[in-house]
Amino acid sequence: MASTRYCDLPKIISAATVLALTTPSPAKADCLSYGPTRVSIAGTLNRIVFSNPRGDPEPYFVLRLQQPVCMTGEARDEDKPFLSDILAIQLLLTETQYAQFRPLLGKRVRLSGSLVAAETGHHHTPVIMGDVVLAEEQK
Questions:
Q1: Does domain 26-137 have CATH number 2.30.30?
Q2: Which of 39, 44, 67 is nearest to 133 (CA)?
Q3: How far is residue 61's CA from residue 113's CA, in Å, rounded to a whole number?
Q4: Which of 31, 51, 108, 124 would be 138's cystine partner, CB 3.0–4.6 Å?
């Protein structure tokens, strides 16, 4: 008599779903955190002119990353969503900081600061860095 194997597909799918949801992926484990935690990240400092919601030009300094990063999201907190494939971070700088960082445009730098998700029409990258400090200029 031939044996028959029974496959309970709904149980297998359910078990796989639970495993996928409870096992941290390497990408999420390496994600950056939103503020108030400070992060340190390296990239190339650029000046980019965006258009504001009225279409007027708004120049900002942006840190361009060589490798994409992600942000750890928090369930039930729309102010801190999970984001992936971030390659640029807009910097919120004072006039003094613009003057300090201007000579570094086009150079690789390491900056530290606090990250927030973009909220307004004046935020032009998915993540914004405030409380920015120059950690080091890289050669």
A1: no
A2: 39
A3: 14
A4: 108
C-alpha dihedral sign at 99, 103, 105, 110: negative
pLDDT at 69: 93
d(CA 31, CA 33): 7
Regions in the chain scoring below 70 on pLDDT: 1-29, 75, 138-139
pLDDT of residue 22: 38
As a whole number of angstroms, the distance between CA 118 and CA 102 comes to: 23
Neighbour-count burial of 72, counting CB atoms closer than 10 A to its CB (0-12 exposed, 13-18 middle, 19+ buried): middle
Q: Which amino acid is at 138?
A: Q
DSSP bridge pairs for 112? 40, 133
Contact 77, 52 (CB under 8 A): no
* pLDDT recorded at residue 19: 38
4-to-7, 10, 12, 14, 105 alpha-carbon distances in Å? 10, 18, 18, 23, 69
The residue type at 3: S
DSSP code for 103: G
